[in-house]
């Protein structure tokens, strides 16, 4: 596998203990209730947080190994990371943001066009919509030519229409990306739409029955009003 | 009207502001973001000039810059001259005296930056120093300008520390505040009044600008 990890970390309410892999060109969706450790895991992969013990390897390269005292910095891992919150640099326009760490500046321009925001390239982030900002964040991450893409609930702050559009764009894009993609969500519909593999994480551990339990407990179909209130159950997508 | 002392004042304020902008930015960054042993002691030391009477600070600077002091000896060995009663001496004293006024607003501005922007910068491959230049500084512009204005004003108004270190050498260390004091001592109230009048509009206008900048940054965040 391209990515292999086995990590343990003592968190506030539980101990995280995870073992997972992901192949190139595959999208692994990490799903589960909020506060279950999904974001912590993604931050460990980016190098922004360190496990207490374990090992993370990427294409045979060790990024973290508690036994050998290895912890490669985020700068050297070269991953693309789209955060849940808007993290574009406010003093730069969309083009400058996309090209911030671009290997080739022209690619940043092409990506902005590909994501339909080429005409907004001179606008500052606060002058565009949330969906346009997250599109730009994707361009910024991809322009670095990452070896892995981490998407931490990138569309959760957006309205339903913008989310739907971006999901579809991401699904099309996924076909041409040849590296692992880890996508965090708590929306089962989104997971089913995007994933090659879905991995439910509950209280820091893999819990493969979580989806069935959730669906069985609160079926969303037949009650659209309830589904609207509970976006994680919007399976009608 | 003593234009020469006004010129020395202006020169001193400009030199102090430029030096402090360069020195204070990394200090403020360290205080805002880094953890290191003795940080609170170090921070208190930086803010000490606010709490010390200027003449007390001036006294210690005389000791340090004098021929037997560690700075004075080193300077003497290097240049053969003395720092006391020179423009360079009062510039050094002014920098030390105004350092809290540069560090504090910069630190506050740096702390306002969303830490996720810095995390994003590190994931995008930027080193800590590159992130400081490319992300922290441009997003702290109002705090940096506020620091520059406060330092400039504070330098213009300095008196006690400067008279201790530099005395009153016309055209070299005699700044406007000392000229006002000497004019009053000589009962020349007209000159003292005219020179004092120069300070009020300048200081007021700059303070208005600082308030404006603080207001802008509050609504901009």
Notes on the structure:
Chain A is an alpha/beta fold and 237 residues long. Helix content of chain A is 33%, strand content 23%. In chain A, a hairpin with a 2-residue loop joins strand 4 (53-58) and strand 5. In chain A, helix 4 (105-114) packs antiparallel against helix 5. Chain A is globular. Chain B has one domain: Orthogonal Bundle (MetI-like fold), CATH 1.10.3720.10. Chain B has helices at residues 3-33, 39-51, 54-65, 70-79, 87-112, 115-123, 128-136, 141-157, 160-166, 176-185, 189-220. The longest helix of chain B has 32 residues, at 189-220. Chain B is globular, with a radius of gyration of 20 Å. Chain B starts with a helix and ends with a helix. The A-B interface holds A 46-48, 73-75, 77-81, 83, 85, 87, 89-91, 100-101, 140, 144 and B 114, 116-117, 119-127, 135, 138-139.
List keywords for this structure.
heterodimer; A: alpha/beta; five-stranded antiparallel sheet; disordered C terminus; B: 221 residues; mainly alpha; MetI-like fold
Write the topology of this structure.
The complex is a heterodimer of chains A (237) and B (221).
Chain A: E1 3-10, E2 15-22, E3 27-31, H1 38-46, E4 53-58, E5 61-65, E6 70-71, H2 74-77, E7 80-82, H3 94-98, H4 105-114, H5 130-143, E8 149-152, H6 160-174, E9 181-185, H7 188-194, E10 197-202, E11 205-206, H8 210-217, H9 224-229
Parallel strand pairs in A: 3-9, 3-10, 7-8, 8-9
Antiparallel strand pairs in A: 1-2, 1-4, 4-5, 5-6, 10-11
Helix pairs in contact in A: 4-5
Chain B: H1 3-33, H2 39-51, H3 54-65, H4 70-79, H5 87-112, H6 115-123, H7 128-136, H8 141-157, H9 160-166, H10 176-185, H11 189-220
Short description:
With 237 residues, chain A is of the alpha/beta class.
Amino- and carboxy-terminal Cα gap of chain A: 31 Å
The geometry of chain B reads as globular
Query: What is the quaternary state of this protein?
Result: heterodimer
Radius of gyration of chain B: 20 Å
CATH hierarchy: architecture of chain B: Orthogonal Bundle
What is the general shape of chain A? globular
Q: What is the H/E order of chain A?
A: EEEHEEEHEHHHEHEHEEHH
CATH superfamily of chain B: MetI-like
The share of residues in extended strands of chain A comes to 15-25%
């Amino acid at each position: 596998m391209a990515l292999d990890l086995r990590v343990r970390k003592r968190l506030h309410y539980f101990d995280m203990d995870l073992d997972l892999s992901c192949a190139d060109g595959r999208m692994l969706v990490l799903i589960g209730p909020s506060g279950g450790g999904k974001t912590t895991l993604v931050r460990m992969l980016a190098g922004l947080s360190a496990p207490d013990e374990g090992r993370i390897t990427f294409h045979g390269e060790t990024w973290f190994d508690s036994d050998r005292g290895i912890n490669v910095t985020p700068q050297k891992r070269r991953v693309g990371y789209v955060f849940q919150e808007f993290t574009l640099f406010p003093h730069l326009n969309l083009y400058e943001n996309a090209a911030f760490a671009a290997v080739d500046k022209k690619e940043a321009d092409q990506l902005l066009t590909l994501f339909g925001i080429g005409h907004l390239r001179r606008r500052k982030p606060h002058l565009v919509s949330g969906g346009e900002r997250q599109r730009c964040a994707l361009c910024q991450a991809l322009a670095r030519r990452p070896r892995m893409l981490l998407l931490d609930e990138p569309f959760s702050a957006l309205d339903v229409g913008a989310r739907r559009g971006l999901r579809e764009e991401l699904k099309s894009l996924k076909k041409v990306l040849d590296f692992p993609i880890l996508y965090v969500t708590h929306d089962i519909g989104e997971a089913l739409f995007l994933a090659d593999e879905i991995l439910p994480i509950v209280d820091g551990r893999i819990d493969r029955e979580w989806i069935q339990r959730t669906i069985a407990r609160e079926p969303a179909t037949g009650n659209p009003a309830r589904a609207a209130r509970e976006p994680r159950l919007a399976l009608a997508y | 009207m003593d234009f020469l002392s006004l010129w020395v004042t202006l020169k001193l304020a400009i030199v102090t502001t430029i030096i402090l902008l360069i020195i204070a930015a990394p200090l403020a960054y360290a205080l805002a973001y880094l953890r290191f042993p003795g940080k609170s002691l170090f921070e208190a030391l930086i803010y000490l000039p606010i709490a010390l009477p200027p003449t007390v600070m001036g006294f210690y600077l005389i000791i340090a810059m004098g021929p037997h002091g560690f700075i004075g000896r080193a300077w003497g060995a290097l240049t053969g001259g003395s720092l006391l009663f020179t423009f360079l001496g009062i510039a050094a004293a002014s920098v030390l005296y105004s350092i809290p006024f540069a560090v504090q607003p910069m630190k506050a501005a740096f702390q306002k930056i969303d830490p996720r922007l810095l995390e994003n910068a590190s994931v995008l491959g930027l080193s800590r120093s590159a992130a400081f230049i490319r992300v922290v500084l441009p997003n702290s512009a109002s705090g940096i300008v506020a620091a520059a204005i406060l330092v400039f004003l504070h330098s213009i108004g300095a008196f006690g520390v400067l008279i201790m270190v530099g005395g009153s050498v016309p055209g070299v260390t005699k700044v406007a505040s000392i000229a006002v004091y000497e004019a009053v001592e000589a009962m020349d109230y007209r000159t003292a009044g005219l020179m004092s009048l120069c300070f009020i509009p300048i200081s007021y206008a700059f303070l208005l600008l600082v308030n404006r900048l603080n207001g802008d940054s509050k609504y901009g965040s």
